């Protein structure tokens, strides 16, 4: 994967909508193109491109919704008609316009998770998954703030975060979907969390 570029702080302030900003971060990271290359080859064409899947995940999260696949699908189909056509959520078939189905979203998601998984699960994220997450986070930091602090945290604030290295990781509980069972996104987050130095200060 190429080294991600960054959006400027002016672009953040001037972003007309969360959708525009999300697309700029994804494009700057190069993550979508790298994932498309990993899953290319064989099989019928995908209606839902990896880039649009990442857009849907970020839209669901930006609206304070859990990133279940149903929520991602809902976020995409509720876009404006122009945006749905531009992102491939609606495409023209021989029988007329076709709206993205949940099964089509699930297929793209499954291909992506397979490409980012290890052959033998060991509780730690693969190098490919770390690379994708790192590139997205890096691209989301405006250039003017890249070197302001070495204390980082993944949350909604710009407050510096300090932690003490520990051998044992204490991870916060992951959200669960209705009817029980962790969502696919939650499972991915738990896997990533297990490799972190510290997710939360142990009590």
Walk me through the topology:
Blueprint: H1 9-14, H2 18-29, H3 31-39, H4 50-62, H5 69-77, H6 81-87, E1 90-93, E2 96-99, H7 102-115, H8 127-139, H9 184-194
Antiparallel strand pairs: 1-2
Helix pairs in contact: 2-4, 2-8, 4-5
Compose a concise summary of this entry:
It is built from 9 helices and 2 strands; from the N terminus they run ααααααββααα. It is mainly α and 203 residues long.
Structure description:
The structure is a single chain. By secondary structure, the chain is mainly alpha-helical. The protein has one domain. It contains 9 helices and 2 strands. It has helices at residues 9-14, 18-29, 31-39, 50-62, 69-77, 81-87, 102-115, 127-139, 184-194; strands spanning 90-93, 96-99. The chain has a two-stranded antiparallel sheet with strand order 1-2. Helix 2 (18-29) packs across helix 4, helix 2 (18-29) crosses helix 8 (127-139) and helix 4 packs across helix 5 (69-77). It is globular and about 55 Å long. The N and C termini lie far apart (38 Å). Mean pLDDT is 77; it is low at 8-15 and 188-203.
Question: What brief labels describe this structure?
Answer:
disordered C terminus, mainly alpha, two-stranded antiparallel sheet, 203 residues
The share of residues in helices is 40-55%
Q: How many separate structural domains?
A: 1
The profile of the biggest β sheet is: 2 strands, antiparallel
Strand share of the residues? under 5%
Q: Tell the overall outline.
A: globular
In N-to-C order, the SSE pattern is HHHHHHEEHHH
The total of beta strands comes to 2
How far apart lie the N and C ends?
38 Å
In what order do the strands lie side by side in the largest sheet?
Answer: 1-2
- Parts with pLDDT < 50 across at least 5 consecutive residues: 8-15, 188-203
Mean pLDDT: 77
Query: Helical element count?
Result: 9
State the secondary-structure class. Answer: mainly alpha
Give me the Rg, rounded: 18 Å
């Amino acid at each position: 994967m190429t080294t991600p570029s960054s959006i400027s702080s002016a672009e953040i302030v001037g972003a007309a909508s969360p959708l525009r900003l999300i697309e700029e971060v994804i494009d700057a990271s190069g993550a979508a193109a790298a994932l498309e290359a990993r899953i290319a080859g064989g099989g019928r064409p995908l209606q839902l491109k990896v880039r649009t899947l990442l857009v849907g995940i970020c839209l669901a999260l930006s609206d304070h919704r859990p990133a279940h696949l149903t929520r991602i699908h809902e976020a995409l189909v509720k876009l404006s008609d122009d945006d749905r056509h531009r992102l491939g959520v609606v495409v023209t078939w021989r029988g007329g316009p076709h709206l993205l189905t949940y099964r089509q979203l699930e297929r793209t998601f499954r291909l992506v998770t397979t490409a980012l998984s290890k052959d033998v699960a060991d509780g730690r994220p693969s190098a490919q998954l770390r690379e994708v997450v790192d590139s997205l986070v890096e691209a989301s930091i405006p250039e003017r703030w890249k070197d302001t602090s070495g204390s980082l945290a993944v949350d909604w604030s710009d407050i510096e975060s300090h932690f003490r290295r520990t051998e044992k990781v204490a991870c916060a509980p992951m959200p669960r979907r209705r009817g029980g069972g962790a969502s696919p996104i939650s499972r991915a987050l738990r896997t990533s969390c297990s490799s972190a130095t510290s997710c939360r200060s142990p009590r």
